[in-house]
Amino acid sequence: MSHPVPLPATPASQSPDIFWFIPTHGDGAYLGSETRQRPPEFAYFREVAQAVDRLGFKGVLLPTGQSCEDSWITAAGLATATERLKFLVALRPGVTTPAFAARQAAALDRLSDGRLLLNVVVGGHPAELAADGIFLDHDARYAQADEFLKIWRDLVAGKTVDHSGKYYRVEHGRLDFPVVQQPHPPLWFGGSSEAGHEVAAEHTSVYLSWGEPPHILKDKLADVQARAARRGRKLKFGLRIHFIVRETGAEAWAAADRLISQVSDEQIESAQKRFKVEMDSVGQARMAALQPGDRNKLEIAPNLWAGIGLVRRGAGTALVGDPKSVAARIREYQEIGIETFIGSGYPHLEEAYRVAELLFPELGVDGRRRKVSDNIVNEFAVGSHLAERRRAAVS
């Protein structure tokens, strides 16, 4: 274990970058239920993407896996339907070759005019990886990822690559069509094991974590930063978390309770057993360790709720509360170095509006939304010219 180095705090006065999530595995109003479920259709993905682009979110994360629509194809379609939005797309060492992945990245970076970000996903579900033809153990997968990224970075940087390693062999590899972003689209990465920290420190620019309490997360971020510092590098940090924001705290907690109201105890037991038995992800184990064992005591830190992790693998926590309370928690994460927050909520379209309308003003985030003019009179605003006429009539 490396000796942690102090983390540079992000000033609380600085507005964070807020990303959103494209639900390519489907969406709905209740976890663990088919009630008011929305199927994974491109038309719906486009609705969400266009909404968050208009609302002022900086980018979107597209998940990856057997249960999701392909993130590359989906991002290519959404890039042509949006203007400013950045796309954080999964780069999967082991699933593809470095050369083919380099060509894909260059094509999508050009198609999106430099709006591509890459999320390096090694994977932590051996059965799912086996279905993709990957049969390496945990640390070997990260060793393969390290070799993959060395080749990929050289190719995208315009170098001719000759490589003979443990996992890959390349002869006179090159990329004929360049990327827009130099030397390559930014690499993001989330991995909580020691092997994952090494890959992050060596290759990536943004380290991602799921939503653990700040006092727990701080040491993990410091360890990654120490490993990067030994290489003369400095990382930025992002947090993957859900949001349940309402005008009052009581409304927010009621919405949280409603979200899991149709989840049975049997579903929870089955999901938790599956996470422990089927996965070798250290990050997933850390998420599971946050579960209190009582569905009525899921607030594991102020405004931090573990209810989503009852049945969802991966990001299992949410910030719940009124805008001021949630903004205060975000500032606590900023104090330990988090600059980007990748949010989501159920359903994702409606919750994107709630976050933008309620939380953005508290954080000083520019929502880019056109305001009703003072000269317009309707049920949402009384125009200034009407007020002037009333004053004139009184005088």
Structural features:
single chain; 395 residues; alpha/beta; TIM Barrel; eight-stranded parallel beta barrel; four-stranded mixed beta sheet; 41% helix; 16% strand; flavoprotein
Number of helices: 13
Terminal Cα separation, in Å? 77 Å
Radius of gyration: 22 Å
CATH topology-level fold name: TIM Barrel
- Major sheet: arrangement of strands: 1-4-5-6-9-10-11-16
Average the pLDDT over all residues and give the rounded result.
Answer: 91
Major sheet: size, sense and barrel closure?
8 strands, parallel, barrel
CATH class, named: Alpha Beta
Strand content: 15-25%
Structural class: alpha/beta
Please give the number of β-strands: 16
Do you know the CATH architecture?
Alpha-Beta Barrel
- Indicate how many domains the architecture comprises: 1
What best-fitting shape do the alpha-carbon axes yield?
Answer: globular
CATH superfamily: Luciferase-like domain
Which regions have little confidence, pLDDT < 50, spanning 5+ residues? none
Helix residue percentage: 40-55%
SSE string, helices as H and strands as E: EEEHEHEHEHHEEEHEHEEHHHEEEHEHH
